[in-house]
Design brief:
Elements lengths: L1 H39 L4 H26 L3
Length: 73
Amino acid sequence: MLKSLLENVNLLENIYQISIAFLLLCSIFSVRLIKKLKRERKLSFFENIMNISIRIAIFLWLASFFLIEYGGY
């Protein structure tokens, strides 16, 4: 019983890490697309807000990842 529960927890942790990697990859591609659009034309208000929020989210995730993995938290 306990062994199967631990295996399920490990599976969920792996799925969680894969989903974070996928979201990070998609957000990086989104930033690249917005950067390309910015060269072609002026961005709308929503696109500017999205660009800023994605960049902040990537930075916050990266900072928290390094603090958790290498900071001893």
